[in-house]
Design brief:
The protein is 59% helix and 0% strand. By secondary structure, the protein is an all-alpha fold. The structure holds zinc ion (ZN). Zinc ion is lined by residues 219, 223, 232, 236, 313.
């Protein structure tokens, strides 16, 4: 997508009665339906074996054609309401393509075991579930009422979301395997037995405590070490906060976070059930704390990281710089004297003028590794 089209798609108001909401629904449903149909056509290449075992093909087929129907009707509505018929027609075209693709080999070919695959189904499912949960939540309980759904930077953030979900196998390859190779010799099977035999709830709390301590220091280092800051600044470059802004994380930071966060799990040997429960919980929580919601949780705000707590971390106001590093437990910020949560709410987000992160996914990918121009000394 060119920068021109990205700029055109961003910062668009979705007002009622102009056929824009119906066009948005038609195009979104059409795109997701096309991707789902591709998953049916190439299941071995595009879907995750772990998810394939729990799918009900008939249910997915019904949902897919229902989605195509909704997208088609929304496209027609847009054509009649929106003077720019191109968007509505694009939605109709995409839904027609999805119907044609899906009506063929919808049953799919028998599954084969493959070593390399893309998590396209994981991307579609998580995007659909998160959008259905967070878009209505942010509309009903918005902290910034004027903020648009299609705010500035949403296309870039969607690309990050796609990249991290489609490349889930690659990320695991670059994090879990090197950690196992490096630290395998120091793993103590007796310690693993002791830790994994504890009740699940206790293991879950222990993972939170341990991993949060590690992530606090990684995060703080990313703010303090100039080279690491250039990587992490990409995450801080969003000027508006919402659920999708949580996806804006440079691939180098994704790898570093997952590698370092995996080390305590590897050494202590928590059970897979406790580890998966933690990963699902913390992934959802990480999205929630970026959301544009006004919940302040008066009795919990110093016990767990809330949107208020994390929004202060993203604020570019002087009082908020280098504060609130904890991912889940603010107690670490209190202990290490970096906590900041005054009675008022932050009003400005992004990086300070000394850090100029470019717009766009590719430019941001290159940004941390680009040579900085040396400032000329004053005569
Ligand atoms: Zn940060």
């Amino acid at each position: 997508m060119t920068n021109l089209l990205r700029k055109h798609l961003e910062d668009q108001p979705l007002n009622y009665g102009h056929g824009k909401i119906s066009a948005f629904i038609a195009i979104s449903f059409g795109l997701l339906a096309c991707l789902t149909a591709f998953c049916f056509l190439f299941p071995n290449l595009l879907t995750m074996p772990e998810l394939r075992s729990v799918y009900n093909p008939l249910l997915i087929k019904v949902l897919l054609f229902s989605g195509i129907g909704v997208g088609f009707i929304a496209g027609l509505c847009s054509v009649f309401r929106n003077p720019n018929r191109l968007w509505g027609l694009s939605g109709i075209f995409l839904n027609t393509c999805a119907a044609l693709l899906a009506s063929g080999q919808i049953e799919g070919s028998p599954y084969e075991a493959r070593n390399v695959y893309a998590g396209l189904d994981y991307f579609i499912l998580t995007l659909l579930v998160l959008a259905l949960v967070f878009i209505p939540m942010e509309r009903m309980f918005a902290k910034y009422q004027q903020q648009k759904i299609l705010r500035k930077g949403w296309v870039t953030d969607l690309k990050y979301f796609m990249f991290s979900h489609l490349g889930i196998q690659l990320l695991a390859f670059f994090t879990i395997i090197p950690a196992q190779v490096l630290f395998n010799q120091w793993i103590n099977p007796r310690l693993h037995q002791l830790v994994s035999s504890q009740p699940l709830a206790l293991q879950f709390l222990e993972i939170l405590l341990v991993v949060d301590f590690f992530s606090y220091w990684i995060h703080r280092s990313m703010h303090k070490v100039p080279r690491l800051w250039r990587i992490h600044a990409v995450h801080h470059s969003s000027l508006q906060m919402d659920w999708l802004a949580s996806s804006r994380v440079h691939v180098a930071e994704l790898i570093l976070n997952r590698f370092v966060g995996y080390i305590p799990l590897l050494f202590l040997g928590f059970s897979p059930a406790a580890t998966y429960a933690y990963l699902i919980f913390i992934s959802f929580h990480a999205i929630f704390i970026h959301a544009n919601v006004r919940f302040r949780f008066p009795y919990l705000r110093w016990m767990i990281a809330t949107p208020e707590f994390h929004h202060w971390h993203h604020s570019s106001e002087d009082e908020a710089l280098d504060k609130n590093f904890a991912a889940f437990l603010p107690i670490y910020d209190v202990i290490f004297k970096t906590a900041h949560m005054p009675a008022h709410l932050p009003q400005r987000y992004g990086t300070t003028p000394s850090t100029k992160v470019p717009e766009g996914f590719v430019d941001q990918l290159i940004y941390p590794f680009k040579k900085r121009k040396k400032k000329k000394a004053a005569p």
